[in-house]
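**Folding the chain**
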Amino acid sequence: MKTLKLVMSPLRFTAIIRIRGINPYIRVNAVRAKIIKPDWRKPLPVLVRVNGKPDEPWALNMMPVGDGGFYLYLHGDIRRTSDVQVGDRVDIQISFNPAYRNGPMHPMPSWFRAALAGNPKAKKTWDALTASRKKEILRYFSRLKSAEARARNVGRALHVLSGRKGRFMARSWNG
């Protein structure tokens, strides 16, 4: 996972790692969340260190709870790097990630743009997708190397975006 330097003085506190379903997390209450970024209601991009590790903080998104607070999920790499587990009391350092960019990070490939232009129904569905879904698809497309892989995947994308049932991006699309 990509890491970035903390650019401002981080919020620092201790908390116990809890588990929600199968996901270890730290609960960041509304008061603390407001210190990090006032009045933020969607996933909050932050830079995080757990017990002072790693040297370059993790770039993560905290997920809103609904009461102004957030869940800071701690995936396996974070827990291994910090040598912590569920139930441990940890020192947390969090700051807002000013390098965060909203929306797709990868440009739409010309071959996909051309395919959408030739299929108005698929284009309309594409335009209606959430920003996060578009971002996920464009990230996937950016990694395709061969013309065969691009052709195969644009075909699958147009199939499901045209309203037909199928599987694309490890999901079932039901029209």
About this structure: The chain has a mean pLDDT of 90. The CA atoms of residues 46 and 60 lie 5 Å apart. The chain has two domains: 11-96, 110-174.
